[in-house]
Amino acid sequence: MHPHLKTVLELQQTDQRIAELTTLIDSLPTQIQTLQAQLDDFIHTHEERKKRLAANQKERKEQEGEIKEIQEKISKHKDQLYQVKTNEQYRAMLKEIEGEEGKIRKIEDQVLEKMIEAEDVQGHIQEAAARLESEKARVAGEIKRMESERQTDVQERDQLLARRQELHAALSESVLKLYEWIRSTRRGVAVAQVREGLCTACDVLLRPQVYNEVRANEAVLTCENCNRILFYVEPAAASDEDATAAG
User: Fold this and answer.
1) Cα-based torsion angle of the residue sequence 134, 138, 140, 144 in order, rounded to the nearest 10 degrees
2) pLDDT, block means (10 residues), the chain with 247 residues
3) Domain count, the chain
4) Does 135 lie in the same domain as 118?
5) Alpha-carbon distance 84 to 194, whole Å?
6) Which end of the chain is more exposed for a tag (fewer CB within 10 A), N or C?
7) What's the pTM?
8) Do 33 and 14 share a structural domain?
């Protein structure tokens, strides 16, 4: 294989790996932010439930105080029953007592609803409290692992960038310019394999003469359709066992 052709093949592999590593490295802050946001949401929900439980308890206490006030009022009304002078006043007082007792039943229903709600919220709070430390540890562990992987990726990318400079130096100026131009105009893919007479990048059939020249791998040739640098890999010979099976 022509030295320049072999070099551009390695250069493309190097550039593609550098691009992959750069994507991984650049994505880390977003991944960490997402993890931290998940933990913050968990903590926020936990704190909101605690506030909700405190408000529930306060409301129940106020309702129970209201019931006590109404009960005292009913007690006074009952004492006043013995002081009324007419049946009309007596019936009016009974009706007022009945109305106050209805208020108590209504408030008691609300208190019961609050108790059921509090029981549910308390269960969630206990469950979240049991998970909170493990969630913090999980997120911290994930972030540490990701930062370690990022450091490894940065080191690998630095090594590849150094290798890239070596590969640049090994190419002639004309071939390097050709490679970089194709790479910039073909989404980072400057080199393509030829298989069964086709450029595998654009699926266009090569002319027989060009195909034969590419198969020799003795020159830097480009596809007449997509302009990518072409190379050829001889298919592996079928084993006797494979040949027998095919027969």
Assistant:
1) 150
2) 93 95 94 93 94 94 94 89 85 90 93 94 92 92 94 97 96 95 92 95 95 94 95 74 46
3) 2
4) yes
5) 112
6) C
7) 0.67
8) yes
